[in-house]
C-alpha cells in the first residue's frame, strides 16, 4: 500500500505545528506548541519520507522521539510521522498501532485527529482486519462532516467484509447521496448488499442505473431481469431481456432461448415463434430437438396451424420419442388430412410414445373417416390394449359394428 496521499496530509499537519500554534474549538483552550528545533527535524524526516527514504526518515523521527521532555503535542507529531513511515514500508500492523498511540494522546488539532482515525481504519483494512476497521470507522463517523462518496465506500466495504450488510447499505447509500455521480464500485457494493438482504426493489434501482451507464454490460441486464423475477414482476423481467436483445447485448444461444421461453411463459406465443424462427434461420441457436420443439410449441400456442405443422415435422424428426409426431397426427386429423394423420401416427408409434393406445385411436378415426372400417376396427382393437384408450376404443368398435348392421 502506497501512502503518497496520506503523507501529504502529514506535511500539512507539520506545517501547522508552528512554534506557537493554538486552537480554541474546545470550551477549554488547548495549546499545540512545537519547539523550532523539534519542528525542523520532523520536517527533515518528512522530506526523506517523500523521497521514499524510509530508513533515513525513521532514524530522524526516532532521534526526535528520544529527546527528553517532549510535550504531548511533539510526541504526537513524532508518532504520526513514524506511523506514516511504517505504512510506506507496508508494515500495516505497526503503522496502525503507532498512529493509534498518536490519536490516543489527543494532542493534535481536531481535524488532524479526525483524519488519523480514517487512516487507521484504512490501515486495518489493508491488514485484513475489517472488524478493527469498522470499530475505528464508527468512531470516525461521529465527527465526520459531509464525508465523501469515496470515504463512505471504504466504510461500507469494511462492513461488507464482516457481513453486516445492513450497515454497509446505510453507509453506502449515504456515499451515493453524497456523490454527484457515484462511482460504479460504490454502486456495485451497495447493490451486492441489497441482494444479500433480498431488498429487490433497491437492487433493481441500482441495476437500472448501471445499465443506463453501461448498456454494453450483458450481466447487468440479465441480473436486472432476474431481480424483477424475484419481485414476481415477470412483465418487467421480460421487457428487460427484450431490450437487451434489441440492443445486441445478448450473444449466447442459451440467452436467446431463455428469451423465447420467457415470451411463451408471458403468453405472447406469436412473438416467441417469430423470434425463435428468426434465430434458427440466422443460426444463432442450434437446430436441435429442444429448440425446434420450442418453435413448434410457440406456433401451436399462437394457433397458427399452417406454421405449426412444418415445425412439428421438423421437430419430430429430431426428437428421440414420438410425442411430437402424435401431436402432428392430431392436427392433421383436425384439418381432415386423414392420410397425413395416419402417416404421422405411424411415425409416432415407430419412435415410441407414452400412451400408444391414443395413437391407435387417431389411426382408427382417420381410417373410419376414409371409409376403411376394417382397418379402423383393427386400430381400435390395438387401442383396447392401452387402459388410457380402452373404453373409447370399445365404444368406437360398437359404433362401427352397429352402423354396419344399419342400426
What average pLDDT do the residues reach? 90
Main sheet: strand order = 1-2
What would you call the shape?
A: rod-shaped
CATH-level-2 architecture of the largest domain: Alpha Horseshoe
> What string, H for helix and E for strand, traces the elements in order?
HEEHHHHHHHHHHHHHHHHHHHHH
The number of helical runs is 22
Radius of gyration: 39 Å
Determine and state the CATH class of the largest domain.
Answer: Mainly Alpha
Protein structure class: mainly alpha
**CATH superfamily (homologous) name of the largest domain:** Tetratricopeptide repeat domain
Strand tally, please? Answer: 2
Report strand %: under 5%
The termini sit apart by: 100 Å
How many discrete structural domains? 3
Instruction: Characterize the largest beta sheet: strand count, sense, and whether it forms a barrel.
Output: 2 strands, antiparallel
Helix content: over 70%
CATH topology of the largest domain: Serine Threonine Protein Phosphatase 5, Tetratricopeptide repeat
Structure, described:
This protein is mainly alpha-helical and 407 residues long. It has 3 domains: 1-144, Serine Threonine Protein Phosphatase 5, Tetratricopeptide repeat; 252-319, Serine Threonine Protein Phosphatase 5, Tetratricopeptide repeat (Alpha Horseshoe), CATH 1.25.40; 320-407, Tetratricopeptide repeat domain (Serine Threonine Protein Phosphatase 5, Tetratricopeptide repeat, Alpha Horseshoe). Helix content is 74%, strand content 1%. The protein contains 22 helices and 2 strands. It has a two-stranded antiparallel sheet with strand order 1-2. The longest helix has 17 residues, at 72-88. Residues 1-5 and 7-28 have low confidence and may be disordered.
Amino acid at each position: 500500500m502506497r501512502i503518497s496521499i496520506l503523507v501529504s496530509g502529514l506535511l500539512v499537519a507539520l506545517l501547522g505545528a508552528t512554534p506557537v500554534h493554538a486552537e480554541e474549538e474546545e470550551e477549554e483552550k488547548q495549546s499545540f506548541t512545537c519547539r523550532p528545533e523539534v519542528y525542523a527535524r520532523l520536517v527533515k524526516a518528512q522530506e526523506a519520507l517523500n523521497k521514499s527514504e524510509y530508513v533515513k526518515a525513521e532514524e530522524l523521527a526516532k532521534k526526535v522521539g528520544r529527546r527528553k521532555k517532549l510535550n504531548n503535542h511533539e510526541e504526537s507529531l513524532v508518532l504520526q510521522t513514524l506511523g506514516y513511515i511504517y505504512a510506506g514500508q507496508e508494515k500495516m500492523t505497526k503503522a496502525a498501532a503507532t498512529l493509534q498511540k498518536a490519536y490516543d494522546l489527543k494532542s493534535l488539532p481536531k481535524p488532524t485527529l479526525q483524519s488519523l482515525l480514517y487512516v487507521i481504519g484504512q490501515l486495518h483494512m489493508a491488514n485484513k482486519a475489517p472488524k478493527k476497521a469498522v470499530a475505528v470507522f464508527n468512531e470516525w463517523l461521529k465527527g465526520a462532516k459531509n464525508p465523501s462518496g469515496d470515504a463512505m465506500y471504504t466504510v461500507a466495504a469494511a462492513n461488507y467484509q464482516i457481513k453486516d450488510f445492513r450497515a454497509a447499505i446505510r453507509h453506502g447509500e449515504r456515499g451515493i447521496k453524497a456523490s454527484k455521480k457515484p462511482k460504479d464500485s460504490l454502486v456495485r457494493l451497495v447493490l451486492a448488499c441489497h441482494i444479500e438482504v433480498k431488498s429487490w426493489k433497491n437492487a433493481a434501482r441500482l441495476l437500472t442505473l448501471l445499465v443506463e451507464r453501461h448498456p454494453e454490460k450483458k450481466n447487468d441486464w440479465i441480473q436486472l431481469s432476474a431481480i424483477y423475477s424475484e419481485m414476481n414482476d415477470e412483465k418487467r423481467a421480460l421487457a428487460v431481456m427484450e431490450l437487451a436483445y434489441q440492443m445486441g447485448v445478448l450473444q449466447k444461444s442459451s440467452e436467446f432461448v431463455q428469451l423465447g421461453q420467457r415470451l411463451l411463459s408471458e403468453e405472447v406465443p406469436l412473438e416467441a415463434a417469430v423470434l425463435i424462427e428468426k434465430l434458427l434461420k440466422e443460426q444463432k441457436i442450434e437446430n436441435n430437438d429442444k429448440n425446434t420443439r420450442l418453435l413448434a410449441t410457440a406456433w401451436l400456442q399462437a394457433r397458427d396451424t399452417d406454421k405449426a405443422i412444418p415445425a412439428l415435422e421438423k421437430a419430430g424428426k429430431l426428437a428421440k420419442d414420438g410425442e411430437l409426431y402424435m401431436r402432428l397426427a392430431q392436427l392433421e386429423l383436425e384439418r381432415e388430412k386423414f392420410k397425413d394423420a395416419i402417416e404421422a401416427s405411424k411415425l409416432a408409434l415407430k419412435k415410441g410414445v407414452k400412451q400408444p393406445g391414443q395413437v391407435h385411436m387417431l389411426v382408427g378415426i382417420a381410417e373410419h373417416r376414409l371409409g376403411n372400417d376394417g382397418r379402423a376396427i383393427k386400430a381400435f382393437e390395438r387401442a383396447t390394449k392401452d387402459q388410457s384408450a380402452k373404453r373409447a376404443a370399445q365404444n368406437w368398435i360398437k359404433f362401427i359394428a352397429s352402423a354396419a348392421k344399419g342400426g
